[in-house]
Amino acid sequence: MEKKWWHGKAAYQIYPKSFCDSNGDGIGDLQGICGKLDYLKDLGIDLVWISPIYQSPFVDQGYDISDYYALDKAFGTMEDMDRLLAEAKKRDIRIIMDLVVNHCSDQHEWFKKAIEDPYGPYGKYFYILEGRDGKVPCNWRSYFGGSVWDKLPGHDNLYYLHMFAKEQPDLNWENPLLREEIYRMIRWWLEKGVAGFRLDAIINIKKDLRFKDFPADREDGMCSCSQMLKYAKGVHEFLQEMKEKAFKPYGAFTIGELFDFRKEELKRYIGTEGCFESIFDFAPHLLGGSGKGWYDRKKVTPDQYRDAVFASKAFSQDTGMMANIIENHDEPRGVSHYLPEGEVTEESKKMLGGLMMMAVGLPFLYQGQEIGMTNQTFTDICQVEDISTLDEYQVALDHGLSREEALKAVARMSRDNARTPMQWDDSPHAGFTAGKPWLKENENYREVNVKEQEGREDSVLSFYRAMLKLRKSVEYGEAIVYGKQIPWMEKEKEFMAFYRKGEKRQLLVLANFRKEERKVQVKEEIRRIVADNCRKVSAWGMEEPKEWKEGLLLKGYQFLVLDVTP
Question: pLDDT exceeding 70 applies to what percent of the chain?
């Protein structure tokens, strides 16, 4: 793997609407982010990805962009953005933005002009087709439910394609004029001082241009639009062109959101000549899914989690560095998703975070993860804002679940779980805002918040800070960043262990993924405890008790990083 400047860094995702509100209107903003830069620096963060802050009608929480060159007034002004970039630079923090170019908003000027003249130049910025025998062009189902086709307003037999919400028309990347518009916009932001981009749903930019029907996978007679991606050829040409014309001249850091890539093509994405610097490792997040919908999704077991991580690292670590996550704005909270119900404790939260940060890859934290924020409790579907959750709720009802059963089924996967306000302290609304928050705060904010954990050496926050500091240490940084990841005892139930073998140091990571104790015999000599989630941070590195020579007795959910002899 070619070494890059960012390999030893740590990244953090901010969902701006829920991070910090500076003016009391209940919506987080750029000034709020600016006021928390010292917190992020102290945590050990070098890269900050900010989810969309562009002008938007907010049908999909900002992922429906009506003007790529303007900021939404809810977040602040361009002067606020300039100040954020300048203050971040003072702290050696790079800001990356969300690049949403598979689709835009139906309120964008381009789409308005396409409606006026579907056969004109702007009509070619979108996929606009005639219906077939009075029906939609094909039977693809959108990611948010319903057909990917909607009638073009004012035109009886013309339909436009939208793989997400109907208010998010897909952009036609086959059109070179459209591509140049996008590259021009990218360069504009990079010249302003943005360090790079996270590319949203980027593999979707290439379509199967036959627009043919596929076998239905639900009773509605439609199939998931993701099925057509198997037949869409040529996305790499688009991505390489974007890299050469927009990213490369500025040395931009780029990270792609790819769920549906072919493993044999990984080198084309993150290899030496890859089109991105990195992509997110979604291997664990794909577990338990069902084509029927969220109501049929299965709980992920510890062994499934372990096996998915090991398999992903086995095929990727020699090619490039993927980004490790346990949650983001599109996922439920990781500790609620991956840990067994009733076993979500500070120790188990730290164990899960430790595994993420010790696996080979760029650690990419999501706001609130560092204090162990959990899923929200929904008592009524009216509390839900997320468009995807509302669709899945209806799917569950259509399959015979009661309203109570449907709510429970979708609540554990709802994207709103990760979008509740950041929990800064135990004051009203978790210290997020002086007003009424746009989304209700999690009811446990008085127990789980930054202020309570700040000075406590055994807190989740202290653990994350220490682990990120460890990653950058002179003694162990090379092994953690570049050491080969080799599984150990991979058939042991509810247990995850692996080596990180560096040039000078060998680390052994142990995680007891259950509440019961277990004994483990380590064959190598243990030089030092490098990390231990069951001790205060200042106690790491203490001399080992002699009886451990006969085997390590791991407590429930204990996580250890050991310096062992090669």
Answer: 99
The correct CATH number of 480-564 out of 2.60.40.1180, 3.10.450.50, 1.20.1270.90, 3.50.50.60 is 2.60.40.1180
Contact of 197 with 278, CB cutoff 8 Å = no
Provide the pLDDT for residue 198.
Answer: 98
SS3 330: coil
- CB neighbour list of residue 343: distance below 8 Å, 6 or more residues apart: 515, 557
Number of residues in the chain:
566
* Same fold yes or no, 109-161 and 480-564: no
Secondary structure class of 281 (helix, strand, coil): strand
- Under CATH, which number does the domain 109-161 receive? 3.90.400.10
* Confidence at 547, pLDDT banded by 50, 70, 90: low
CA distance 56 to 58: 5
Compute the distance between CA of residue 519 and CA of residue 79 in angstroms, rounded to an integer: 58
Query: 3-class SS at 234?
Result: coil
Query: What class has domain 11-103+176-377?
Result: alpha beta
pTM of the model: 0.97
Average pLDDT in the chain: 96
Residues 450, 425: contact at Cβ < 8 Å? yes
The per-residue pLDDT for 544 is 61
Q: pLDDT for 75-120, tens place per residue?
A: 999 999 999 999 999 999 999 999 999 999 999 999 999 999 999 9
By the 8 A CB rule, do 30 and 75 touch?
A: yes
Terminal alpha carbon distance of the chain: 22
Residue written as tokens 């164990």?
A: 351
Going from N- to C-terminal start, the domains of the chain cover 11-103+176-377, 109-161, 480-564
The more confident residue out of 71 and 263 is 71
Structure tokens, 546: 């002699």
Tell me how crowded residue 294 is: count the other CB atoms within 10 A of its CB. Answer: 21
C-beta contacts of 425-429 below 8 A and 24+ residues apart: 425/449, 425/450, 425/451, 425/452, 426/451, 426/452
529 sits in which H/E element: strand 526-532
Please report where in the chains the tokens 């085997």 appear, as a residue. Answer: 551
**Tokens (6 digits) for 227:** 């099925």
Residues assigned a catalytic role:
200, 257
